[in-house]
């Protein structure tokens, strides 16, 4: 499984690629920062008295994109034509089986993310979107244009159950983005 | 449609990428040489007295990977989990609709390739495999390893109805590949 | 010849490179879309009652930049000092000789493009310029600047015999470019 | 801190770069797989009855290279001339301060890795070396040479307290490396 | 030493990298233009009656960044935490020792640059800053943003003893930069 | 002229590119090491009692490829079809004119290299070939193949008037190359 995870270093995030970022971050690059963000958010929530399992959240963050090692980062334009969720689910299951007795737990964690089954799974989804917007902002600050589409994710962050805790963070991003326009 | 075709320049051929070729050819790079090879093969067949519609073959070569502008080059590891053929068919149909009155013809040509419905469609499939092996050989000559898997396509070329006409070409490739091992 | 055509995948289009696009399209990338555009334009003209040999046009599109596999994409700054046309002509001739009995036809087609000897050759020249402008626009939309020079090609498109048929296409590009300024 | 962590996506791992891998993994790419490996190793140890704090281990894995966002991946050739450890320590401290009330804990975790103060810190060091060798092997399988130096890390893995649990994994790598020579 | 200098071709200038220029110039790229600029400036000064040793200036320009072959281009963010000057001094000394009887002279030249001990050393420092600003301007003209920080070097050029001779050059750059803002 | 020299950073050395090195050194990268090598060789010759003008040699090294900023690195395959020497001569002349009163001297220096008119010019030619072979060896050590052609330059080095002084250097390279085969 460690070898397969190497694919995540080689595979570009296709959303940026298709908008002309010629040498974009890898899936592993993205996953790394999602894990880092999850760490901070989970610890912050805990400090604020929310009952959250930080270990669980970190595991989900690390595993949530692993199936893309087989499926690749199928972009939105393609998801209209094929069932990415179903494909990743099957791939995740088969990859986790290699983890032996841990397989069941890992697949359960993966589903918590994919299907929003737990607080921790939903937090990683929040972190995943946040990470994407931070990256979008960085590309914009570098001079890249044509990335407006991505900012529709802002609305999803604002509707999230975690928004009240990280409002400043989210709106700070929104402000920096506006300054660039 | 011209704009969408621009995606084919940006999207890498994932087969090479996943085997460590860090800056591989684009889908458009590949499609270009498929068209060039098709041109030579079709003209050669005609010279040999085979009845073949060269125009038809060239059109198929140019259109055969166009749906990947939306679907991307989904690698073999993923095709086990999702129905690439079905997705590309639907995407091709929707892309060709933009071509107005020509839509029907183009989609028909696309299917001739995908489903092997015509001599010309099958010839482009032959050229498609040939192109991949030429590229594999070039990467091997550059020093890349780990590309053996691709050479299973040799068998498909040998079983093809066109093999007898281009035997020398196919076996020449096979010989050069062997020298590298 | 198929091996030599591989050079077109490796060689960057120097016009973009010299203006700071650090990882620009290859010559093959460009040639592919020229062929695609030619296909659409030729079929459209035919639908409009123009007598045009689509097969001929496609062959020209596929062959028109082949000599650059030996000469490379010598940029404008250099063409002032050396005779690119003459060099490509000689290189084309020697490359086509490898195509045996087809050599004569292919070289004839190549000259139809280079010297504008036929309707089909001139159409590919039109498609060649159109392709370059579409690419320029895409780079501009990505955030690249400094590409104004390329837009002088607009005038050549407007003076072309094909302008009346594809006026909407050409002016649509011009409009999108203006919005970026 | 999330913005600074973005540097880890942009910065190459200089060890590979200096040996001619022209487009190597980023620091974030590496950190991601270290976290993934840590997850598996820690869970495995726990299954084997070892008392280990998985959450702690994951946090360390995610934080262990963060200081490189300011210091960059200073290669071995440079470490002879400057005190990388001291620089990273100071940078880590200043970066973590931004994390407010969590700063103290994060810096403590960072030191557990750097100074081997805890079982979890040492496990991440083990995972860090393992990750590097997996990557070395992948580059070798791709065709890169000149990476023998890295394999001296093998000895460190063999001397580690964790070797007995992951002997098969380590020796499997060693075997695959030998086959390449 | 020639082999070690090869590192300068592989190592990116980290200042650009950290601001999002994904494929920036190498250290050798930079050093080359510093040498070229030094050549022109030194010859110009001489024509203006200034007593300057052109050979000495050129040698300094060629040698001034050589220690980075071992230390890499440690960015400003890191220099706060480690003593780059001291590290480069030691590395330079050890590299020059390989040059045998020339070692002493070369190390002396290196110090003239680093410590501003001679007119020639200070001229190369002037050329070094000039080169960086020319490159910053070129990236800005390409579309990159976020490079304002670098322009603080303008003040240093204006305070330099060489400013009166190359005022036009410096202010010309400043003007072109302003037009971009 | 400083701006035009920036092209040398952007333009790849096409010889490597055409043999599959996907991200090769730039012309400026090469020129930098030629200047460094020239510095050492010239100083060594002087130490050995040869009368040589080191300043002159360095100037030639820095200027010798400058015309490629307009002409690009036209590869051998193209030089059969076009007169590279003539083109570079004219371009060099026009570029140097911008250097005002220094133009004449610089053009003279350029010709000393191109036409081998002086000891210093011939030394830079020797350094130019040496640099290429060092680079070829480095690429071979990295794993790249297919570079044998370049080693025919070895014979030219052996026939050179400077061979007796740098025999050890040249034969050392030859030996390392043989070990790779």
From TrEMBL, chains A, B, C, D, E, F:
Gene Ontology MF terms in the entry: 5'-deoxynucleotidase activity; metal ion binding
GO cellular component: cytoplasm
Domain HD/PDEase, first and last residues per copy: 23-142
Pfam family for this entry, one: HD_3
Enzyme Commission designation: 3.1.3.89
Cofactor(s) needed by this chain: Mn(2+); Co(2+)
Keyword tags: Hydrolase, Metal-binding
This protein's record includes keyword Hydrolase: yes
Quaternary structure and interacting proteins, as annotated: Homodimer.
Protein name, entry field: 5'-deoxynucleotidase
């Amino acid at each position: 499984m460690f070898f397969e995870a190497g694919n995540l270093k080689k595979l570009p995030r296709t959303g940026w690629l298709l908008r002309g970022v010629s040498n974009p971050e890898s899936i592993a690059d993205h996953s790394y920062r999602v894990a880092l963000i999850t760490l901070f958010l989970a610890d912050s929530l805990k400090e604020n008295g929310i009952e959250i399992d930080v270990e669980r959240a970190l595991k989900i963050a690390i595993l949530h994109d692993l199936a893309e090692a087989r499926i690749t980062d199928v972009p939105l334009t393609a998801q209209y034509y094929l069932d990415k969720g179903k494909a990743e689910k099957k791939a995740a299951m088969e990859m986790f089986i290699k983890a032996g007795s841990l397989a069941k737990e890992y697949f359960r964690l993966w589903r918590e993310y994919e299907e929003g089954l737990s607080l921790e799974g939903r937090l990683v989804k929040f972190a995943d979107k946040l990470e994407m917007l931070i990256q979008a902002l960085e590309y914009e600050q570098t001079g890249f244009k044509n990335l407006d589409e991505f900012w529709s994710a802002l609305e999803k962050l604002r509707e999230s159950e975690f928004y009240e805790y990280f409002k400043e963070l989210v709106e700070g991003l929104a402000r920096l983005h506006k300054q660039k326009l």
